[in-house]
Amino acid sequence: MPNVGLVVGLSLSAALVFAASSSLKHVSAGAAPETKDFGAGTLARFVRATVTHRLWLAGIACDTVAIALQVLALHFGALAVVQPLLIAGLVFALVFRRLHDRRHVTSRQLVWALVLCAALAAFVALAAGAAPKSPHVDRLPAVIAGGIGVLFAVVCVALGKRMAGSARRAAMLGIAVGLVYAASAALLKAITDIFTRDPVHVLYSWQLYTAVALGAGGLLLNQLAFQAGPLAASLPATATVDPLASIAVGVAVYDEHIPRVDDSGAVLVGLLLVLGVAVIQLVRNSPAIVAGEPDAASARPARTPK
């Protein structure tokens, strides 16, 4: 049985640091050149401006800490438990948003944030015993899952390019980011399993270099999603798709089995639906979307000195 307290503590700590990173990188995205056409030259200018921005670099430093915490959580716990816990980062992001933008968090936002936390706590309590039978990976399901994930991510990016409205565009890109993050988490778990058996073998494993490539692609997509629209559109989409896809990967690829309660899996399915509804309501009740107010990152900075 995994150490539930340790897994929960590491996962929530990672969620907190990831939320800080998202806030920093979201603000930095507003200072980068606009990327509406996704052309090679435009993307090159966007990347150059991004990697030299101090807030983005600070966000990367936070990511380094958060990923280390996530790796430890994945080592001790199941993928299907660790990744849903990262949804708590949405609540942390609301707090950071209020501190940075000095905007009032509405009562509806607060209520839905509490609903999200309650559903998340119930899910963890019921699924805490989930664990893989062994570090063995089912290769055929892994290939199928990877192919489906790539296809859906490409479709989401393509649709995002054609969509009108910053919120919809950001949400579609956020879904693609969530799929990339889920794949990265699955690879991180595989890497930790390899490391425990033979640390040197990690350097020769395809999982390591695939994770690095996915990580770089995820960083770029994440910044594009942040620039495309308000944080309340992209971050909830990412935070919802990531754990749901991770649960599917954990069950199909790592043979993780979620314990049932009273011989009924409907309770866990219902909790996941409540999580999804809470995330959607947090998006709908965001001032940046409801009132049409400019978001901190989407508002272009003034070019003239003060």
What features would you describe in this structure?
This protein has about 300 residues and is mostly helical. The chain is about 75% helix and about 0% strand. It contains twelve helices and no strands. It has helices at about 5-30, 40-50, 55-75, 80-85, 90-100, 105-125, 140-160, 165-195, 205-230, 230-255, 265-285, 285-290. Helix 1 (about 5-30) runs antiparallel to helix 3 and helix 10 (about 230-255) packs antiparallel against helix 11 (about 265-285).
C-alpha Rg, in Å?
19 Å
The count of helical stretches stands at 12
The unreliable regions are 288-306
Sketch the topology as an H/E string, one letter per element: HHHHHHHHHHHH
Helix share bin: over 70%
What is the averaged pLDDT score? 76
Which features characterize this protein?
306 residues; mainly alpha; disordered C terminus; 12 helices
